[in-house]
Design goal:
The chain has 67 residues and is of the alpha+beta class. 34% of the residues lie in helices and 15% in strands. The chain has 2 helices and 2 strands.
Length: 67
């Protein structure tokens, strides 16, 4: 049995710090910068609103639950 040779089509991991960020401490006490979950939730909700009102095929359920 051999592994499938499927090309990766995902975006690369970002190297810059997030625009909307918060700083947390990990269990070793070091600062870790992560994307602000509230800002992420708002952006997803706005993208969903635009998709529904913009005439694109969209459904409120999935993205709204994610937001």
């Amino acid at each position: 049995m051999e592994p499938l040779n499927i090309p990766n089509v995902l975006a690369p991991t970002p190297t810059n710090t997030p625009i909307y960020k918060i700083v947390l401490k990990n269990e070793l006490g070091k600062d870790v910068t992560v994307a602000d979950p509230k800002a992420t939730r708002v952006l997803v909700a706005l993208m969903n609103q635009f998709a529904v009102n913009g005439g694109a095929a969209a459904h409120w359920g999935g993205p709204a639950a994610f937001a």
